[in-house]
Design a protein that fits this description.
Radius of gyration: 22 Å
Helix content: 25-40%
Number of helices: 19
Structural class: alpha/beta
Largest sheet: 9 strands, mixed
Strand order of the largest sheet: 9-10-8-7-6-5-4-1-13
Shape: globular
Length: about 475
């Protein structure tokens, strides 16, 4: 593995006392409220059950006129073992045969969906999430790819972005070679933390050698981009302990890193009830871990894309941000803007033109809908003009860390400063506290404001409920 000498020395020296000039702990704690992550706007809480399969069908057909490329998301809900921190939609089983009925329904959904789409549209992006997609056998994975290709026509373009989430405990070098043969060119490995004590507390024992072996093989095979997922705020984590994990991760040299803030919501997610709340780091310790994370990764040469994402300067995420084409969707940040996203599988969400459509979160309802010969859409939303304008502004703020009101005026044929007069008044406190700077029509998040970008975006949210505490995770 390539080791960055500069990173190794600077992170060791600076881990204990980070020196990010944009850091203001008191300010962060004051603004650390609960709020949406804005993987969509309006958020999923605004979806309603008056929106059904017929509405989604109509949206798919309308979308053909745009000729936008497609992005396909496939949800594989199965896991062999439950991680206690997990808030994903999953089914715990060790029997891969149980996936067969699900894959049959998945194919039925592909058929029903593709009937309403112009399948000559290029599939630029493919993402398999879960659960654990590598729960499937190699032959099952091949079968799903064959079906996707038959229904939608997959791409072999070098610029395609075909990604899959991998549990290093359930994959080996043969898995990677098979995934490459299927057309995947980007992988994401779940790591969370390399500390054995933390791993035991979250029921995810995963020695470093498993991750390192897969990364070495992925680099050798020439996967275009490799992402590692980490989580801060887990039981028994400390600033010093997480700094040790970060040192090891930097040595592994992934192209991207996602460092998520653990949201402890045991009232909503049953597995989290297995976590002893007294073992969780304090709010102060979590802030210290975040501070160390940003300092060490940026010192090692990573670009802080926004929120929980970091990338090497030559990675497509960092390039897209510099070019102003970065997009935010249900998988986080994406370098493939302006795709219509079609979600397949239980709980999957689609974003097609001016519509969001979501499948049932329980397997029985998903299967029942498809067995009756219709799409499984159980709720959704068609955006009005105001929603579309605000979605554009929030997305640009989340991706570019700034908003050019003059450009917004031109793009939407409005007087943006007047249109957002109430919002701008709401942002005065943030401007006063140094979270934003304003130069004419340009509003730019400061370094401390970038850490609180969700709070800044909330000012533009016309659907935000009065009480966000029980509905959303904390911002920091």
């Amino acid at each position: 593995m390539a080791v960055h000498a500069l990173a190794a020395t600077s992170t060791a020296d600076r881990a204990a006392t980070p020196t990010n000039p944009g850091w203001d702990e008191a300010l962060l704690r004051r603004y650390d409220k609960s709020g949406p992550r804005y993987t969509s706007y309006p958020t999923a809480l605004s979806f309603h059950d008056q929106f059904g399969a017929d509405d989604f069908t109509a949206a798919l057909e309308r979308s053909n006129a745009t000729r936008k490329p497609l992005s396909l998301y496939v949800h594989v809900p199965f896991c062999r073992k439950i991680c206690f921190y997990c808030a994903c939609n999953k089914i715990a089983t060790k029997n891969t045969a149980l996936a067969e009925p699900y894959l049959s329904r998945l194919d039925r959904e592909m058929v029903l969906t593709s009937q309403h789409l112009d399948t000559t549209r290029n599939v630029e992006q493919l993402h398999w999430g879960g659960g654990t997609p590598t729960f499937l056998t190699l032959s099952q994975m091949s079968d799903v790819i064959d079906r996707l290709d038959a229904r939608f026509g997959l791409s072999s373009s070098p610029s395609r972005d075909y990604a899959i989430e991998i549990d290093p405990r359930e994959a080996d070098v043969f898995t990677l070679r098979h995934l490459q043969s299927l057309g995947f060119n980007r992988i994401s490995l779940g790591v969370q933390d390399l500390d054995p004590v933390v791993q035991k507390a979250i029921n995810r024992v995963q020695p470093r050698v498993l991750t390192e072996t897969l990364m070495e093989e992925a680099h050798r095979l020439g996967f275009r981009s490799l992402n590692l997922d980490l989580i801060y705020g887990l039981p028994h984590q400390t600033q010093a302990g997480f700094a040790d994990t970060l040192r090891q991760v930097i040595d592994l040299n992934p192209a991207r890193l996602s460092v998520f803030n653990y949201a402890h919501m045991p009232q909503r997610f049953a597995p989290q009830r297995r976590i002893n709340e007294s073992d969780l780091p304090s709010a102060e310790e979590k802030l210290a871990i975040l501070h160390t994370t940003i300092d060490m990764l940026t010192s090692a040469g990573y670009v802080h894309i926004g929120m929980d994402h970091f990338a090497r300067p030559d990675d497509s995420l960092a390039v897209a941000q510099r070019e102003g084409s970065l997009q935010r969707n249900f998988q986080g940040y994406s370098s493939h803007a302006q795709c219509d996203l079609v979600g397949l599988g239980v709980s999957a969400i689609s974003r097609v033109n001016d519509v969001y459509a979501q499948n049932p979160t329980d397997l029985a309802s998903y299967e029942q809908a498809l067995d009756s010969g219709q799409l499984a859409t159980v709720k959704g939303l068609r955006l009005n003009t105001d929603d579309l304008i605000r979605r554009d502004v929030i997305e640009r703020l989340m991706c570019d860390m700034q908003i050019d009101l003059a450009e917004v005026s031109k793009r939407w044929h409005i007087d943006a400063p007047r249109y957002f007069a109430t919002t701008l008044a709401r942002l005065q406190g943030a401007l006063h506290d140094g979270l934003m700077e304003q130069e004419g029509d340009l509003l730019r998040a400061t370094p401390i404001g970038r850490l609180l970008i969700r709070h800044l975006a909330m000012a533009f949210d016309a659907h935000l409920p009065d009480d966000t505490t029980q509905r959303y995770s904390r911002i920091v």
